[in-house]
Design a protein that fits this description.
The structure is a single chain. This protein has two domains: 196 residues, Aminopeptidase, CATH 3.40.630.30; 124 residues, NADH Oxidase. It has eleven helices and 13 strands. The strands form three sheets. Strands 8, 9, 10, 11, 12 and 13 form a six-stranded antiparallel β-sheet that branches. A four-stranded antiparallel β-sheet has the order 1-2-3-4, sandwiched between helices. The protein binds flavin mononucleotide. The site of flavin mononucleotide has 11 residues, from strand 11.
């Protein structure tokens, strides 16, 4: 069991053991309320106290409540989390409401997700309705922690001073409250995986303008993993994928249909293709559609954007793509999926239409 408590001198040893883990070369403590800079626990606790009140916090900072995460079985301190009571300009753009750290030896065990879930409950008790959390764009673990807790991606900001891109996510605490009141879990495991997907279902839009920035290989892989997770008729999995970053070839692909121009400025175009000799060819294009939707949702969940450019079933477009890619005869081109970091912001609309539903009772 884990408990989130205010730090006191009673935990002196644990706090110092925690600090020592961060003194190793190559380890940094992003959210630790400056513990790393304090020689003694007393110094740190004084600082935590100073930062917790409006009257004593430095003028350029906002008051914050700080908690430590203790694992009850062995009384070990596994994390620190700080909740800023409101946002100033810097926090609204880069820092967010919450900063945290987890002991290097305790990572990849779900501790960060649980600590964040507990901290969100404290935020709710403090009267916050929405919480902003940010993470470095290359911090996959942190991003997953935020998504598991219902984070909805809003934007990526470049923090010039630190030379880093930060992704910004909002967590709606009113929704979380409804979840808790419905008796749903507060530890957020599988339900949160579901939330993440549901968020992308409602958040995804067609993105046709992209920043001039490459997309990391890991993200491409995650998108393709999502594609290949799709169901298919007789589980035939007819798909293969070409990942094109060659600018000249992308330019050519953007001319295969009158509507394919959004591909032109994309840093990557994924071309899903299918095998002609699959188990039930009549269903191949249907299977491919599901795979492309999965790709699209994963793209959104990763803070990227993309758009499906229709190729199949229009025969001449399929042939044009096949010619450009020079793919074997055994494969058929299905669609183009340009993707990248969005250079446009689009709000998805609610398409629910009750008149389309016919209940037969
Ligand atoms: C099968 C299919 C083919 C599409 N083809 C194109 C296309 O060729 N060019 C384009 O700009 N958008 C294309 N789109 C994107 C649709 O225009 C878009 O999904 C639709 O307008 C709804 O907007 P949203 O994606 O932002 O929700 C296609 C979407 C689908 C599902």
């Amino acid at each position: 069991m884990l408990k989130l408590i205010e730090p006191t001198m009673e935990y002196d040893q644990q706090i110092q053991a925690y600090r020592r883990e961060f003194l190793q070369p190559g380890v940094s403590m992003d959210g630790g309320g400056q513990l790393i800079h304090c020689e003694t626990t007393k110094q740190w606790l004084d600082l935590v106290e100073q930062y917790s009140h409006q009257e004593t916090v430095p003028a350029d900072k906002v008051p914050a409540s700080l908690y430590i995460l203790i694992r009850e079985e062995d009384n070990k301190m596994v994390g620190i989390i700080q909740i800023r009571h409101y946002l100033n300009d810097y926090l609204r753009k880069y820092g967010g409401h919450i900063g945290y750290s987890v002991a290097p030896s305790e990572r990849r065990k779900g501790n960060a997700s649980r600590m964040l879930a507990m901290a969100l409950e404290k935020c709710r008790q403090m009267g916050l309705d929405k919480v902003l959390i940010t993470c470095r764009e290359d911090n996959e673990g942190s991003r997953r922690t935020i998504l598991k807790n219902g984070g909805v991606y809003e934007s990526t900001e470049y923090e010039a001073q630190q030379g880093r891109y930060l992704q910004r996510y909002w967590i709606d605490l009113a929704e979380k409250k409804a979840d808790i009141e419905d008796g749903h879990n507060i530890e957020y495991q599988s339900t949160d995986e579901r939330n993440r997907d549901m968020n992308s279902i409602y958040h995804r839009t067609s993105i046709r303008h992209f920043q001039d920035r490459p997309v990391e290989r890991e993200k491409i892989e995650e998108i393709l993993r999502a594609a290949m997770q799709a169901p298919s008729a007789k589980n035939q999995q007819p798909w293969e994928f070409y990942v094109v970053t060659d600018k000249k070839m992308i330019e050519e692909l953007s001319t295969v249909s009158p509507y394919a121009s959004p591909a032109q400025k994309a840093p990557v175009v994924i071309v899903p293709v299918y095998r002609k000799d699959c188990l039930t060819p009549a269903y191949a294009q249907i299977d491919m559609s599901i795979a492309v939707e999965n790709m699209w949702l994963a793209t959104d969940a990763l803070g990227l954007g993309g758009v499906w450019l229709g190729i199949a079933p229009v025969e001449e477009r399929m042939q044009a793509v096949e010619r450009i890619l020079n793919i074997p005869e055994s494969l058929r081109a299905f669609a183009l999926f340009p993707l990248g970091y969005p250079a446009e912001e689009r709000q998805q609309k609610d398409r629910y239409d009750e008149s389309r539903i016919h209940y037969i009772i």
